[in-house]
Amino acid sequence: MKPIRKKILFFAWGYSIHAFRRISIFAEDKNFDVAIISNYRYQIQNTQLFFLDSTYLLFVEKLIALALFGLVLVPLIFFKIKPNEVLNSIYDLILARKYVNSYGADIIFLQTLIYPNYLALFLRKKIPLAITFWNGDVIWWAKWTGLERAFKKIIVKNGVKNASLITVNSSEAYGCCMAYGADEKKIELIRYPGVDREKFYPGNKSREAAQFYEDGGRVVFCPRGIGEYLNSENIIRSIPSVLKEFPKIKFIFLYGAESHRLWDEHLKLAESLGVGLNVVGMSKIEWTLMPNMYRDADVMVSISSNDSLPNCMMEAMACGVPIVMGGIPSIQEWVLDGVNGFCVDPKNSVQLAERIIQTLRGQGVVSGFAKYNLSLVANKFDSADNIKKIKDAILSRAL
User: Is the distance from CB of 174 to CB of 313 less than 8 angstroms?
Assistant: First the structure.
C-alpha cells in the first residue's frame, strides 16, 4: 500500500528566490502534493498554481469608489491607503477562500506574512497553519509607527496565535515571536533551506565575473540588493578610499529588476565620487551561477541595518569567501568580529572601507576566516540537515 501524500498549500508573496527554493524542497519530494496561492505566476515543477488576479476590477473599483466617496474614500486617503488596494485585497481573499476549499490541504504553509500571505489568517481555522517568519516579519516589520505598521502588528500577533508551527532562523527572531505571545512549543529554529554544499564550496576563480574586471583586479561582491536599509549608498561611499590602494577593483552589485531607477541614482553617486568605472550593476543572475560569482569575489559585503540570517552570508561562507557584514544582533550570532569575518556599523562608510582594505590585504586574522566558516556551515547551515528538519516538522503538524 502506497503512503498517502500530504497535501501542502503554500502562500507565496510576489517573486522571491527564497520562496521558490523553499517550495521546491517539497515539490521534489514524492511524499507531498504541492499547490501555491500567489500574486506571482510561479512555475515550479510538480506544483499546482492558484493565481490571485484581481486586474479585472480596475473598472469596477472606480464605480465603487465613486459610490463610497463620502463614506470610505476620504478616511482611506487621509491614512494614505489606496481604495483600489483594499478592493483588490477583498477579491483576493474571496479567490483564496475558493482555492483553499477546492484543494483540500492537509496544511497551509505561509512563506512570510507579507501580502497576500496573511489572507490565510482569515480562512478556515480547521486546517493547520505553518508560518516561516522572514527577517523583517517579527524583528522590525511590525515595530514602526503609523496606521499601516499597527495593522501589521495585529497580523503578526494573530499569526503567532493561530499557527500550529512557527519556524524562524535566528535566536533574535525566536525571542521576538515569544514577545508577540507565541507558544514556545510551536516555535522551531530551522535554518532552511540552508546551503547546498554540493553547489556552494571553495574553489578556483570561475571567471564568471571576468568580464567586469581587469587582470589583476579585485572583486567586492554585493549580492544583497540595493535600498535604504541595505545601506548600498554607504558601500559606494567607501569605494574612493579602497580605490587608493586597489585601483583596479570592481564593486559588483546584484539588484532586483524593479530597482533600475534606484540603481541609476547609485551610479550618479558613484560618478560624483569619481568611481563610476569601478561600479557594476547586475539586475538578474541565474541562481545556478551564484557559486561562481562568490568564488570570483575577494570579499562579500552585506551591511543591512535590519536582518536575520541572510543567504548571501551563508553561501559566501560555504565558498570560503571572506565577509564584511553589518554589526547587528542577528548577524553577530554568527559573525564574530575579527574571528570569522568583520562586523561594521552599517552607516559608517569609513569603517567599512577600512575593513574591506584589511580583508583584501588578506593578512593576519583574515587567513583563518575560511576554516572557521566552513565548519560553521557544515554544522549549522547544511541544507540536507535543515530540509529534513522542516519536512519532519510539517509532517508532525499536518492533518
Answer: no
